[in-house]
Amino acid sequence: MPKTTAPAHPPQAMSPAELAACRRHLEQQWATQPIDTALLHRAWETAHQIAAMLYQDFGATRVAVFGSLAEKHWFTPQSDIDIVAWGMPKDNYWDAYGKVVYFDAAFHIDFVSFEKTQGLFRERVRSQAVFIQKPTEPPPRQTAACRLPISAEQGERYEINRRHLLQRINDERAKIERTLGSIAVALEDIKGVVPNHRKYIEESIAIKLTEVYEGVETIFERIARRVDRHVPDSEKWHNELLQQMAACRAERPPVISEETAARLKDLLDFRHKVRNIYSEELIYELTEAHAETIHALFARVCADLDAFAASLEKEEPSE
């Protein structure tokens, strides 16, 4: 698989003073973010109900929450409830998955078996896990929900929010990398496939290209929600979100360059075609053109995201 070597092209040069002003603005915004205790209570109620089900019906030996709900300053009405279970028999996983993710329509719930996790994601789950005891034991709701003290220093809260945002971005980047690997394999496979089977690989490549864009868009949504505090919701929200990421705001410099945004716009337009026409109407030459350049495009996106991440780093005071 080709590596996404990042070219050097920052989205927009900003002076150290301008970047510091953005960080101060964002630090103040995160410091004054209200905590919805009623929302937290409902989320933990749901998490405990799910844990009880996993223990009783699916043979889990341990259940925990991680991610947003594990750190209450990070949990918002748009946040997911992330549930992880240990020790479930393999045959129970997909039945449990279906029950968990559709458990409560009021929340978006993600579920994973710890045994299926790998690498950095596994380490993140392990480090963030807040365990929920079996129903026969007193549920430590207040202890779990108050893991992060309300009285955390402003600078500490900034660092917690920054770290969580970058973790989520890196998780999504890892997923996109895996999809890119599948595209690279498909491009090799299609060279020797018999004509009758070629269209199935073509369709697969087209779908995976849309998944790449949707993964990038998920990153942009997280930044829009956590940093900008504004996610477009009009009929043209896909385009508006892309434009928003290329714009400078009081809280941050541009997330991506204008050139990266223009190239992503081409991929967004392709995604629209794939999602809105029959597969037999796709022109493979167009699909192939995007597939051949997708690694370079993602390298540009990664370089821009790295520059954005660096802009969030607080400078140490000079001696």
CATH topology of the largest domain: Four Helix Bundle (Hemerythrin (Met), subunit A)
Could you say how many structural domains there are in total?
2
Main beta sheet: 4 strands, mixed
Q: What is the N-to-C succession of helices and strands?
A: HHEEHEHEHHHHHH
Work out the helix count: 10
Helix/strand class: alpha+beta
CATH architecture verdict of the largest domain: Up-down Bundle
Rg from alpha-carbon coordinates: 22 Å
List the helices and strands and how they pair.
Elements: H1 16-31, H2 37-58, E1 62-66, E2 80-86, H3 93-101, E3 108-113, H4 119-128, E4 130-132, H5 141-145, H6 154-189, H7 195-228, H8 237-245, H9 258-276, H10 284-312
Parallel strand pairs: 2-3
Antiparallel strand pairs: 1-2, 1-4
Helix pairs in contact: 1-6, 2-3, 6-7, 6-10, 7-8, 7-9, 7-10, 8-9, 9-10
Essential attributes:
single chain, 319 residues, Beta Polymerase, domain 2, Four Helix Bundle (Hemerythrin (Met), subunit A), 2 domains, 59% helix, disordered N terminus
Commentary on this structure:
The chain is α+β, with helices and mostly antiparallel strands. It folds into two domains: 37-145, Beta Polymerase, domain 2 (2-Layer Sandwich), CATH 3.30.460.10; 153-312, Four Helix Bundle (Hemerythrin (Met), subunit A) (Up-down Bundle). Helix content is 59%, strand content 7%. The protein has ten helices and four strands. The protein has helices at 16-31, 37-58, 93-101, 119-128, 141-145, 154-189, 195-228, 237-245, 258-276, 284-312, and strands spanning 62-66, 80-86, 108-113, 130-132. It has a four-stranded mixed sheet with strand order 3-2-1-4, sandwiched between helices. Strand 2 (80-86), helix 3 and strand 3 (108-113) form a beta-alpha-beta unit. Helix 7 (195-228) crosses helix 8. It is globular, with a radius of gyration of 22 Å. The termini are far apart. Residues 1-8 and 138-152 have low confidence and may be disordered.
